[in-house]
């Protein structure tokens, strides 16, 4: 009898434990089903190659809305620490700390038309060797689907190691908050570029009004998620105070399928008097009013401020002027027309940093991407392996 009684107790205990395990599994799934789906989607597209200074390339498909509506509803964030706190509380419920950081980057971008009439946005991301991820988001609820590119080191992941452990993978859940460039299913593309304003490598923009707040990369996410056009993107930017990240400063270029594009810059009086980021004002250089572009058929941006008169009478270096002049000359010669997306990629390759004469720390072009704003497609090349199998990837929105 004692044996039978003990057996019943053990069976009941096993049932209770099984019920607890099931309840815990249900609770975990209820809380983190989108995050679990996102983590399961992470895959490596190409390996690291130290001989060529390549980082690894990953693909990540983000499930759910990544709490961005909640982020905006709380008024955004005015510092990286505020953003990190929001992401940690929202994504991991405060259990696992997250991280966000940016660094000094030097990049090039242009808009052009193809011979078939498609509008394209080409962009090089120049930095030291680092791992990257191509990120797909489709949050729904009136927000656009998009493809974007992120630098995984911005999430606190080691630039010199693959993303392998669960802890490392969990950090990628913050990927939607740190896009460098991207395109949405309305045919709107945007990129972020260092602008080197103020002292040293740049004094961060830190506008102070009663508007809600955004950091550098969350402004780009706002545009990708909500903008139907360049005009929408500009209107969105005007509604927020911008707070640049990690002791750096940035400007943006945004374009859409109509041929409209604009460079968004937050500037002070001039290059010699722009060390107070709180005093800067947003200036918009449309492609038909950009004094440095001879034609509205194309627009180029690198790493210097394009606002007229900004460098007058100063000795401040215009960062990236050599790359700018090279791209502008090529587009000027063809009236802003490239044969196709591959020709646009060839133009990006012509200023790739492994072969370009440069003497700064950003000696690699980490990725080159051509966004077709007309058919909403993506042509993406990692680490200057132009035309090479295994390094060239294509994606399609709305397919």
Secondary-structure blueprint:
Layout (H helix, E strand, L loop, with lengths): L1 H40 L1 E4 L10 E6 L5 H6 L6 H12 L14 E9 L4 E9 L4 E6 L8 E6 L14 H6 L9 E4 L4 E6 L18 E3 H11 L3 H8 L3 E3 L6 E6 L5 E7 L13 E6 L12 E3 L19 H13 L3 E2 L2 H9 L14 E9 L4 E6 L9 E5 L3
Keywords: Hydrolase
Organism: Faecalibacterium longum
Family: Belongs to the peptidase C59 family.
Describe the structure.
This protein is α+β, with helices and mostly antiparallel strands and 399 residues long. It folds into two domains: 2-40; 44-396, Penicillin V Acylase, Chain A. The chain contains eight helices and 18 strands. It has helices spanning 2-41, 68-73, 80-91, 166-171, 216-226, 230-237, 321-333, 341-349, and strands at residues 43-46, 57-62, 106-114, 119-127, 132-137, 146-151, 181-184, 189-194, 213-215, 241-243, 250-255, 261-267, 281-286, 299-301, 337-338, 364-372, 377-382, 392-396. Strands 1-2-5-6-7-8-11-12-13 form a nine-stranded mixed beta sheet. Strands 3, 4, 14, 15, 16, 17 and 18 form a seven-stranded mixed beta sheet that branches. The chain has a two-stranded parallel sheet with strand order 9-10. The chain is globular. The N and C termini lie far apart (67 Å).
Distance between the termini: 67 Å
- State the domain count: 2
Instruction: Say how many strands there are.
Output: 18
Structural classification: alpha+beta
Low-pLDDT parts are none
Helix content: 25-40%
Largest sheet: 9 strands, mixed
Family: Belongs to the peptidase C59 family.
Protein name: C45 family peptidase
Keywords: Hydrolase
Pfam families: CBAH
